[in-house]
């Protein structure tokens, strides 16, 4: 697999389109960090890290509106790819839908949202946009 983050986002996107409640993805430290951010920002209902075998898996419970059955995640977009990395400084931090969405940034201090990175005045690689 050449791009595990794109695979992670695609698995989430496919589960949302099929209206699944739970999706399992292979685990890595970067994917665990992204999952924690999604949970903290309210885009997913819950998550669980399962340590089985050398890699482990992540079970992600997707969040749906009980009335309209709409998912909390409207769009997942991969920005930086292995063939074309996208970096940004803290002054040029991307804004997703005028601040309503989040951009996940991989910085020297770990994986964080665009607002957290701008507050700490550090830049990094823009992994994805979520809204």
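-> sequence recovered:
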């Amino acid at each position: 697999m050449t791009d595990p983050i794109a695979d992670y986002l695609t698995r989430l996107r496919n589960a949302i389109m099929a209206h699944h409640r739970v999706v399992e993805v292979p685990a890595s430290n970067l994917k665990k960090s992204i999952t924690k951010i999604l949970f903290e920002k309210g885009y997913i209902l819950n998550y669980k890290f399962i340590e089985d075998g050398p890699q482990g898996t992540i079970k992600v419970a997707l969040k749906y509106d009980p009335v309209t059955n709409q998912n909390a995640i409207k769009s997942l977009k991969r920005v930086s790819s292995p063939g074309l990395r996208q970096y940004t400084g803290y002054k040029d931090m991307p804004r997703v839908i005028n601040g309503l969405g989040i951009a996940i940034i991989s910085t020297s201090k770990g994986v964080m949202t665009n607002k957290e990175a701008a507050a700490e005045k550090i830049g990094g690689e823009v992994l994805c946009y979520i809204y």
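The CA atoms of residues 103 and 129 lie 4 Å apart.
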